[in-house]
Design goal:
Distance between the termini: 39 Å
Helix content: 10-25%
Shape: globular
Number of helices: 16
Structural class: alpha+beta
CATH class of the largest domain: Alpha Beta
Largest sheet: 10 strands, mixed
Radius of gyration: 37 Å
Strand content: 35-45%
Number of strands: 39
Strand order of the largest sheet: 18-17-16-19-20-27-26-25-22-23
C-alpha cells in the first residue's frame, strides 16, 4: 500500500505545524495562564492530551491534501472450460435418442461437476442459435438446424482475452447452417475436444435432399426447378417423384435407384399460371423400411407476380458499384434494369447500340431510380434530378466522394449531410436491431458487418424524423451514430402532384462492389449482399396504391420464427394515422391444419400498427385485416406461408470425420461417450491449460477509509474522556 498526493511532500510539514499550533494554543497557552494550583491535571496528562490533539489535527489536515491510497493485489483466474451440447433434432431422430436424453445427460452433468473442482465451467447449447445452458435450456433436441460456426464465433467474441482452456463439443458432426467449422479453427486459441454422438451407419433411406428454384416468378412465364434426390441402400428399387400445386399434379417421373449411394438431379420446367403466393408440393413415394419418410416431402413457395418492374441506374461516372448493383438486382427475375451514364449532353444508356445510346430518358417509365454519386460535383444532369423526383418516383441514393453534398441537401430527400471540408471516412456497417421497416435476417446482417468499409462522406448527418437506419456507420471501433444504410418515407415528393407517400433509400458510401466480392470470398456466395439489395429495392420501389389501408407482411416464414405483420392507415390527405382499432383474422388453408380462425388486434407503433402473432404450424394462411375510420370500413387481405424446416431430417448419418478434423487441427482429441470419464484427467495433464495470475492496482481516497475515521474518532474520544473525567468538559 502506498500513499499518493498531488502536492509536494513538504506540505506534510504544514499539517504537522497546524497540529502543533492547535495543540499548543489549547494546552500550553491556556494552561500557562492559570496558576499551578488551578490546573485540572498534572503535567504528564497535559502532555498526553496535547499529543492526542496534535495527532488528530495533523491527520485531519493531511486529509485535506486529498491523498490517494494505492493498493496492489493478485487475482488468480482459473482456466475456463466451455461445454457445448448439441440441441438439434438429428439426435432425437436416431435409435439412441432415449440414451441421449437420460444416461448421456447424466454423464455430461458428472463431467461438469468434476471439472468445476479445477476449472471454471460454462455450458452452452447450440443448434439454430447459441444459448447459455440452464434448467430451461438443457438439451431438448428441438432445434431445426445446426450452426456450429455460430458457436465458435460466439465463444471467440464472448470470451475474448479470457483464459479459455478448452472447448468440449458434444454432437454428431452434422451442420446444415453457416460455414464449415473446420475453416474457423485457425482463429481459435484453445483446443477442441469433441464427443462423437449419433449413428455413422448407412441406413436404408431416400430423401429429397435439395430443391433449387427462384422464389419469384412472373405470371405466364416458365421457371426451372432442380430437385436433388438421394438414396442409400435401395439398389434396384423405384419411386415416383411428383410435383403438384393446389391439388393438381404438374409433373411426375419414375426414378430407379442404382447402387447403394444414389444421387440424381431432376430438372423440371414449370409454368406460373396463377398470381399470388403459390405452394408447390414435391413428393417422393416412400418405400418399406426407410429410416425416415419425413424427408420424402418438401414444399416450395413461389410468389407469382403479375408484371415486371423496371429500374434505372444512373451513374455520375463509370464505377464497379454499378455492375455490382445491376447483378444483384437482376438476380430477382422480377426486375429489369437499365443503366445510364450521366454526361454534360444528357444520359447515355450503357449497353445500348450506338443509334439509341442517347435515347430520351423518361423517369415515369421506371418504378425506381438508383442514383450513383448524383448530384455530382461535375454538374452533369443535376438540374434534371429535381424534376424527376417531383413526379414522386422512388429513388435509391448511393453517395460518395464525387457527390455534390450542397446540391443533394437542396433536394430535401429526408437526409442532409453538412460538411465544411471535403473529406471521407472509411465506414464499417453496424447492424441496427431496432430497424422495423422490413426484416433482414440477423445472420445475414452479421455477415455484412464483416465486409470491407465504404468510402463515406464526412459531415454532420441530419435526417427526417421518419428515417430509420438499417446499418449505422462504424469508424474504427466507434459507432458514430450516423446512418450508413437508411430508408425514409416522405409525404409525397417535393412539389409532387400527388400527396401519396414516396420512399427513398440511402447508402452513404461508395464501394458496394467490395461487399459483394467479400461475401463470396468469405461465405462462398453473393447471397448476403444480394439479399440486402433485394430488400432495399423491394421496399423502395413499392408504388403506393390509392388504398388508404394496407398490410405489409413477408410471403414466407419458417416455423421457428415469429409471424410479424405491419399495417398503415392514411387519411384523406395521405397522412398516416393510427387512431382506430385494427383487427386481424388468420385462417389456415391446409386441410390438415385447424380451420378455426385466429383473431388478433394490432398494436399501435409509431404512426402505424404492428402485430407479432408468434410461431405458427407449417401451412398456408390467409389473413384479413379490418378497421373503420371516419365512417368508412377498410379491409386488406393476403396470404403467407409458414414453411416447415426439414434440415435436420435430410441427413441423419453422423459425421465423425468432421469432429476428428476439428479436434486434431486444434491439438485436441475426439472421444466417444464411454470415454467421457477420461476427459478431466486429459485436461489436467495439459501444460498449456493453467491458471493465470493478474496483478490488479486500485486507487482509493484515504478519507473514505474506515480505519482512518476510527483513528480520528479514537483520538478525539480519548481526549474527551480524560477531560470529562477531570471536569474540564
Amino acid at each position: 500500500m502506498h500513499l499518493i498526493i498531488d502536492y509536494p511532500w513538504f506540505f506534510v510539514l504544514f499539517c504537522l505545524l497546524a497540529g502543533a499550533a492547535v495543540s499548543a494554543l489549547l494546552y500550553y497557552v491556556s494552561f500557562r495562564r492559570r496558576g499551578a494550583d488551578a490546573r485540572p491535571f498534572g503535567k504528564r496528562v497535559t502532555l498526553l492530551l496535547a499529543a492526542v490533539r496534535f495527532l488528530a489535527v495533523s491527520l485531519i489536515a493531511f486529509l485535506l491534501l486529498a491523498p490517494l491510497v494505492k493498493r496492489q493485489h493478485n487475482i488468480t483466474e482459473k482456466p475456463l472450460i466451455v461445454i457445448a451440447h448439441d440441441n438439434s433434432e438429428s439426435l432425437a431422430l436416431t435409435a439412441d435418442s432415449s440414451y441421449y436424453r437420460t444416461d448421456f445427460q447424466k454423464s455430461m452433468d458428472n463431467l461438469a461437476s468434476k471439472l468445476r473442482s479445477d476449472f471454471e465451467v460454462v455450458e452452452y447449447v447450440y443448434g439454430d442459435h447459441v444459448a447459455l445452458c440452464d434448467e430451461d435450456t438443457m438439451p431438448l433436441f428441438s432445434n431445426k438446424a445446426t450452426d456450429m460456426s455460430e458457436l465458435l464465433n460466439a465463444i471467440g467474441e464472448r470470451y475474448y482475452h479470457r483464459n479459455v482452456g478448452a472447448l468440449v463439443l458434444a454432437g454428431d458432426g452434422i451442420y446444415n447452417k453457416g460455414v464449415n467449422p473446420v475453416s474457423q479453427t485457425s482463429s481459435l486459441t484453445f483446443p477442441v475436444y469433441t464427443i462423437a454422438l449419433g449413428d455413422t451407419a448407412l441406413h436404408r433411406d431416400a430423401a429429397i435432399a435439395h430443391i433449387r428454384c427462384n422464389r419469384i416468378a412472373n405470371l405466364g412465364n416458365k421457371f426451372p426447378m432442380d430437385i436433388t434426390v438421394n438414396a442409400a441402400r435401395m439398389n434396384g428399387e423405384e419411386a415416383l417423384l411428383s410435383i403438384s400445386n393446389g391439388g393438381k399434379q404438374l409433373f411426375s417421373k419414375q426414378i430407379r435407384y442404382q447402387g447403394d449411394h444414389f444421387s440424381t438431379v431432376e430438372q423440371v420446367l414449370l409454368e406460373a399460371t396463377a398470381p399470388g403466393l403459390q405452394r408447390y408440393e414435391v413428393a417422393l413415394t416412400p418405400l418399406n423400411d426407410e429410416q425416415s419418410t419425413t424427408n420424402n416431402y418438401r414444399s416450395v413457395p413461389v410468389e407469382v407476380i403479375d408484371g415486371h418492374q423496371k429500374i434505372a441506374i444512373i451513374a455520375a461516372a463509370p464505377h464497379p458499384d454499378v455492375a455490382a448493383l445491376r447483378q444483384s438486382i437482376t438476380a430477382n427475375s422480377n426486375y429489369e434494369v437499365d443503366c445510364f451514364l450521366a454526361s454534360e449532353s444528357g444520359l447515355e444508356k450503357i449497353g445500348a447500340s450506338q443509334s439509341n445510346a442517347r435515347q430520351r430518358f423518361v423517369p415515369d417509365d421506371y418504378n425506381m431510380l438508383v442514383f450513383h454519386q448524383l448530384p455530382s460535383k461535375s454538374g452533369a444532369v443535376n438540374a434534371d434530378m429535381t424534376t424527376w423526383l417531383k413526379g414522386g418516383v422512388p429513388a435509391l441514393f448511393v453517395l460518395g466522394s464525387a457527390t455534390d453534398l450542397p446540391r443533394f441537401n437542396a433536394m430535401h430527400t429526408g437526409l442532409e449531410i453538412v460538411s465544411r471540408i471535403d473529406r471521407q471516412n472509411e465506414a464499417m456497417p453496424l447492424f441496427n436491431s431496432n430497424f422495423t421497416l422490413f426484416t433482414l435476417e440477423e445472420s445475414v446482417a452479421r455477415q455484412l458487418e464483416q465486409c470491407p468499409p465504404l468510402v463515406s462522406p464526412f459531415g454532420d448527418y441530419k435526417s427526417n424524423g421518419n428515417m430509420q437506419t438499417l446499418f449505422f456507420s462504424r469508424v474504427g471501433t466507434v459507432n458514430s451514430g450516423q446512418p450508413l444504410v437508411a430508408m425514409v418515407q416522405l409525404q409525397g415528393g417535393e412539389g409532387a402532384a400527388s400527396a401519396q407517400p414516396v420512399r427513398y433509400a440511402f447508402v452513404a458510401g461508395e464501394g458496394l462492389w467490395r461487399w459483394r466480392l467479400s461475401c463470396y470470398q468469405q461465405f462462398g456466395t453473393h447471397e448476403p449482399f444480394d439479399m440486402l439489395v433485394d430488400k432495399l429495392v423491394s421496399f423502395t420501389a413499392l408504388r403506393f396504391s390509392k388504398d388508404r389501408f394496407m398490410v405489409e407482411v413477408s410471403n414466407v416464414f419458417s416455423e421457428s420464427e415469429p409471424v410479424v405483420l405491419n399495417a398503415q392507415l392514411y387519411n384523406d390527405n395521405y397522412e398516416a394515422v393510427n387512431v382506430p382499432e385494427v383487427s386481424l383474422t388468420v385462417q389456415a388453408m391446409d386441410a390438415e391444419a385447424s380451420h378455426e380462425p385466429l383473431r388478433y388486434a394490432f398494436n399501435r407503433s409509431g404512426q402505424g400498427y404492428t402485430l407479432n402473432i408468434g410461431q405458427l404450424v407449417p401451412g398456408l394462411y390467409r389473413y384479413t385485416a379490418t378497421t373503420r375510420f371516419n365512417g368508412k370500413d377498410y379491409t386488406a387481405s393476403g396470404s403467407f406461408l409458414v414453411e416447415q424446416q426439414l434440415l435436420e431430417e435430410l441427413t441423419l448419418r453422423a459425421d465423425h470425420s468432421l469432429l476428428q478434423t476439428l479436434a486434431t487441427s486444434t491439438d485436441g482429441a475426439m472421444l466417444y461417450p464411454e470415454q467421457i470419464d477420461q476427459l478431466p484427467e486429459m485436461l489436467k495433464n495439459r501444460k498449456d491449460i493453467k491458471s493465470l495470475i493478474y496483478t490488479e492496482t486500485t486507487y482509493g481516497d484515504m478519507h473514505n477509509m474506515l480505519l482512518v475515521f476510527l483513528i480520528i474518532v479514537l483520538l478525539l474520544g480519548i481526549e474527551w474522556v480524560v477531560r470529562k473525567y477531570n471536569g474540564t468538559v
